[in-house]
């Protein structure tokens, strides 16, 4: 060959190189093997041994003998015990070969040096030693391994008779040691299996049938444990007159096995106990020694008493069993050993509407669903062939034509010999159970979806609220900053309130029955508020966000909160899947019929396999190696549903992994309205005529004070009461024109309070508004029935207060 292929081992490549180097052959070095060739080509100038032609005669003799042997050998010579070895020993070295050649013994086998140094000392002291299966932990293949070796260390003397080195003949016995251990473990395992076997097992030796071993089942059968070393006649004297000893003698003398089926035997189980009848099936199998002569009996069998008695009882009560089966709610049936059904109970006929002739002639298969029939029959015939219990599921047609799900089970009934005499089976209608399980699973899924969606939707507005709260603490007296921050909080709380209104009704959200609050909207404003919601996450990752709005603005008919939620979800999605410092571009465009909002990023992109499923619920494939982007897989699915509910659509585009992605929302465009209300402030009093005295009744001090401050900022005087009695006293002293009453008050609830207020002349005609955290239609109806004029859900919206106060002043 011209050059060493790269797939060759290092030793082969080194040998190839040494074969090509010029060298001077030496008589005691053979080139027949790899190591011999390496030694011929080795540069010995820096070795303590010097050039091979200068080696002393004993060393050359030992090396020549070693290289000529097919047995693993090595020689260690000189003060450093320079290491020389043959081809067979190279296999023991593993990855240490060929670097071990000519190196000090201690460096070659550093990991086992503490174990072998005492042996080496004996050899260097002139004493040969032999060691069998010595355990050593070696590192010769790049990892630690437990090995065993059998070897001898012999001293090698120089010309002056002094020990100058040592010679070792060695063989690795790792495989033999492990095999021996494995055999011992297998023997012990087999002994354990013998002892734990369910059938009766015993080994008897000699013509006296002395117990050599008996397993637990045998000892349980006879009720004794002290049997080993004692003859059968001594342990079980009662069986002599029953013919069992004669059968043992016959098997021992004749050398032929004897088989007994359901043999009755009277046993005195447990010392002085009375005789008890048992039934056993067994075989007396003669065993032979190495000369072929019968040396004992192997007893194998089983206690079939229960089976015999059960068969008797079954035969005696078969008619009773049929009568009982006719009272069962299941469809019961019996089949012969070949699987042919010969009897079904009355319930079967009631369910199928068939006649006895149709069932027993094989017509029962016509009541099974055609798609289930082949698999069911295959499973049934397999059970009949193997004798294993049968279980299957199939759909069966009732007398009304309805298919229902059934669990089919059958068990073989056996005689004392273990032969199947019949099959008894039942078909149980599991349709109600499966429906209940499905409903439970769907309910659990809806619960999980609801909780996940709740957390997902509430986090978006919480971020700007938290930031705004921090700004208010540091804003000082900057009115402009306070105004802007308050506006952010107002919008986000309004957004959260609408979300909570929808999310509280779990069934509506999980089933997609969301009620939309549609209005005419400037889509530029929708996108701007969504960008505001996502700003915190974008800023945290130092994204560069560009926003291009449409001029003049385009108008859509939709739910403001839900549309903000859609765009916000797309922005959050872009933020999660765009690396730090990336670019996110938001564009609003339109044509004559449609308004478009696109969110484009230069993030990790979407694979072709994932792209068709990005809008599926809970879809969250591996879109980055560390999955650091988080998310619950709800945002895109929710966005798609909400957009489609409002007559629009949504699409995703990506050139592939690492190429970024673009999501586009489409909504029908409408004509610009004549006017759109945008103010959310309370009405400012135009003079003393609009100033009113109001009252707030709420045991939550913070909520009451915040509402009072809001009303006072509109120029009204406000009294705050923490319970119903204080309110009743307060309205007499200073009658209010308008009351805001919490439902959940201590002592007397809001319903009872409003009834009493209506009876007082001071508040009989006052406007009374219920303020509560319960917002279902039933809650509203109950409040109005109790006497309230309005029903507001916490937190109270400024817009709702504006309407109530406007009506009051009007």
Any descriptors?
single chain, 810 residues, alpha+beta, Beta-Lactamase, 5-stranded antiparallel β-sheet, 27 strands, 24% strand, flat, disordered N terminus, phosphoprotein, His_kinase_dom
Provide a quick synopsis of the model.
It comes from Pseudoduganella flava. By secondary structure, the protein is α+β, with helices and mostly antiparallel strands.
Kindly describe this structure.
There is one protein chain. 40% of the residues lie in helices and 24% in strands. A hairpin with a 5-residue loop joins strand 11 and strand 12. It has 6 domains: 169 residues, PAS domain (Beta-Lactamase, 2-Layer Sandwich), CATH 3.30.450.20; 107 residues, PAS domain (Beta-Lactamase, 2-Layer Sandwich), CATH 3.30.450; 120 residues, PAS domain (Beta-Lactamase); 85 residues, Helix Hairpins, CATH 1.10.287; 157 residues, Histidine kinase-like ATPase, C-terminal domain (Heat Shock Protein 90); 122 residues, Rossmann fold, CATH 3.40.50. The N terminus is likely disordered. It is an alpha+beta fold and 810 residues long. Keywords: Phosphoprotein. This is histidine kinase. Its EC number is 2.7.13.3. It comes from Pseudoduganella flava.
How are the elements arranged and paired?
Layout: H1 10-20, H2 34-41, H3 57-68, E1 73-77, E2 82-85, H4 87-93, H5 105-108, H6 113-124, E3 129-139, E4 144-157, E5 163-172, H7 174-196, E6 200-205, E7 210-214, H8 216-222, H9 232-235, H10 244-254, E8 258-267, E9 276-288, E10 294-303, H11 305-316, H12 318-325, E11 331-335, E12 341-344, H13 346-352, H14 356-360, H15 370-386, E13 390-397, E14 403-414, E15 420-429, H16 431-474, H17 479-503, H18 506-510, E16 518-522, H19 523-540, E17 544-548, E18 555-559, H20 560-576, E19 583-590, E20 594-601, H21 635-645, E21 649-653, E22 661-668, E23 693-697, H22 701-713, E24 717-721, H23 724-733, E25 738-742, H24 750-759, E26 767-772, H25 777-786, E27 790-793, H26 798-809
Parallel strand pairs: 17-19, 23-24, 23-25, 25-26, 26-27
Antiparallel strand pairs: 1-2, 1-5, 3-4, 4-5, 6-7, 6-10, 8-9, 9-10, 11-12, 11-15, 13-14, 14-15, 16-18, 19-20, 20-22, 21-22
